[in-house]
Amino acid sequence: MEQAFSIISGKRWSSPGMRTADVLNPATEEIIGTVELIDPAGLDQALAAAARGFTVWKNTSAYDRATVMRKAVAIIRSRKDEIARAMTLEQGKPLAESLGEVAACADNIEWMAEECTRAYGRLLVPRTPGVNQLVRREPIGPVASFCPWNFPALTPARKIAGALAAGCSLILKPAEETPLTAALIVQAFHEAGVPPDVLSLVYGEPRQVSAHLIASPIIRKISFTGSTPVGKLLLTLAAQGVKRATMELGGHAPVVVFDDVDPVKTAQQAVAAKFRNAGQVCTSPTRFYVQAGIYPQFVKAFAEAARALRVGDGMDTTMQMGPLANSRRLDAMAAITADALAAGARLECGGERIGSRGYFFAPTVFSDVPESARIMQDEPFGPIAPIAPFNTLEEVAERVNGLPFGLAAYAMTRSLARATAIGELLEAGMVGINHYTVSTPASPFGGVKESGYGSEGGTEGLDAYLVTKSVTQRSSGADLGPL
Ligand code: NAD
After folding, report:
1. What is the pLDDT of residues 106-164, one digit of tens each?
2. pLDDT category, 477, cuts 50, 70, 90?
3. To test ligand 1's pocket by mutation, which of 35, 230, 249 has the most ligand atoms within 8 angstroms of CB?
4. 387 and 318 housed in the same domain
5. Rounded to the nearest whole angstrom, what is the distance from the C-alpha of residue 234 to the centroid of ligand 1?
6. CATH number of residue 274's parent domain
7. What is the signed CA dihedral for 431, 158, 251, 365, rounded to 10 degrees?
8. Share of the chain above pLDDT 90, in %
9. Structural domain for 76, as ranges
10. Res. 482: pLDDT tops 70
11. Catalytic residue (choose from 90, 115, 177, 248)
12. CA angle 259-260-266, nearest 5°?
């Protein structure tokens, strides 16, 4: 039985009467561990540590910060099997996906370690002789960050990497449903030599933890990944202290498939992307608009490929899709399915839970889905794919951009003119044309509209933790006398 606990100043936080929560394996519903839920006294300790840690880390040179971060990368890579196993057991995704996530996690930290030595400022051309005008980029201060359960290693790693690269201290609150993976990532940083006060790990009751940390004047920035309603709540808390925020919120990524592509190959590629992590990915392709000329062939090939997916315990390496991460998602899938059927959509495959043990839901495909169905408005965050036909670019543009979300969007075409037109037209923070890989260490990852603001990854991901200071310095001719 594994135990997860908060780590403050490098030590386990415990106090009498602290509550615990169970950690479940979503493939078996067995309890595999417990997580201790921090109390307000512990959060105050974490805040004090973050304040001390900021003083230490901002005065550590970028080169030394990068060296420590690269050591953490080496540790994470050397423990990839252990971390991936913990992830599959507590989150459910197939082991190969967990291994891929650990690799991405190391790559992202490594990229930020390199970039942190390039947080350049500017030297301005002064208006007055004898005056130097500088633009300095400085770390914003202690950060509080909140992560969800769908990427238990990558999301914490991105937040730690950006903050530490910039010279900030960080209090990380991973999801209590998947605490064990994040603990291994944080442990790697501590073993690599990050000063204990610089990085704290806390688990607790989410609403209580975020309210407590965000209200503290010590915290200067928050970073949240999760649903739009929770993001709005945290933004209102951050607004009270005029705190900077990076918000990675929900999406509902459209895929526009034009009639000049091979419908079968395009459908097979789409299925692989759609059912990754059982569809619990914020950039998952979730609304398929297929041009009328290839619509029937696409639907047939998509449903065939979805039906052929091997669904089961992610620890079994022959499986291609694991269970949903928790029972809430199972209930949500049942409700979305019932609503789509009532709206008149045609069920091509799936539509129900698999078995009665473990949170497995069959890969589900709906065709002829009317725009009024709930699944065309709200992201499914699960293994349900709605497909609808369209005729012209103008018509589909209105439909894809009609929602308040704009995280990822995709288009498939062999035409350069169409690719250019749709790339310009899609209202999204990330656009993939002819493939689905929108997330790399160098690319800014973030959304527009109610999908949030700010980016993680890329130079923007470092900027997110920096403030700008303009320094004007008179070096001669001053009235102060000789310097
Ligand atoms: P939820 O909105 O209750 O929680 C989402 C995450 O936010 C969880 O990890 C939770 O611990 C955390 N959270 C909740 N309230 C919080 C608070 N007051 N302060 C700090 N953190 C808080 O929903 P859920 O049932 O876990 O997930 C459902 C929906 O969340 C999905 O449909 C999806 O839209 C969204 N989601 C998005 C992402 C993403 O990567 N953008 C990840 C997970 C979930």
Report:
1. 999 999 999 999 999 999 999 888 899 999 999 999 999 999 999 999 999 999 999 99
2. low
3. 230
4. yes
5. 12
6. 3.40.309.10
7. 90
8. 96
9. 2-249+451-470
10. no
11. 248
12. 80
